[in-house]
Amino acid sequence: MALAGAAALMCVTAQAASADNATLGEGCYGGWFAFTLHATGDIPAGSSWTSSYSAASSIPGDYMVNSTSGAITVTQAGPHTAHLVSTATISAGTVVYLQPTGYPLTTKSSLNLNISGYGGSAHATFQTQDGESPNC
């Protein structure tokens, strides 16, 4: 058993949905899977998102999301959920990477990562081979 952090997975992602002045999608940051937030217009302060995971694992998670933007604060809302809020306007043209961490993986389990809020929603499913984490 392993906590997220090494090797490769196969990933199936849902198309990014668009709303407001943003688009949520998926990509890579530092060689690891991350959700992307593309500001197609200014994203107002107070905008929010919820991210969660589900996995075929009985190991308790400590789910969190790391943001590349200092304008987004993240709080853990439970072992499977994190809440994100923009504390300042995010300028049009900005791309923010939101990298999930702290989800448990076991051999041959599946992992589902989700995010929704301002800009729509995005989803990724990974089929692990040997408790490996989602990298790019």
Key structural traits:
five-stranded antiparallel β-sheet; single chain; mainly beta
- The tally of strands reads 13
Order of helices and strands: EEEEEEEEEEEEE
Shape: globular
Question: Approximately what portion of the residues adopt beta-strand conformation?
Answer: over 45%
Structural class, by secondary structure, is: mainly beta
| Unreliable spans | 1-18
Share in helix: under 10%
Strand order of the largest sheet: 2-13-12-6-9-8
Count of helical regions: 0
- Overall pLDDT confidence: 82
The N- and C-terminal alpha carbons lie at a distance of 21 Å
Radius of gyration: 14 Å
Largest sheet: 6 strands, antiparallel
In short:
The chain is mainly beta and 136 residues long.
Structure description:
This protein is an all-beta fold and 136 residues long. It contains no helices and 13 strands. Mean pLDDT is 82; it is low at 1-18.
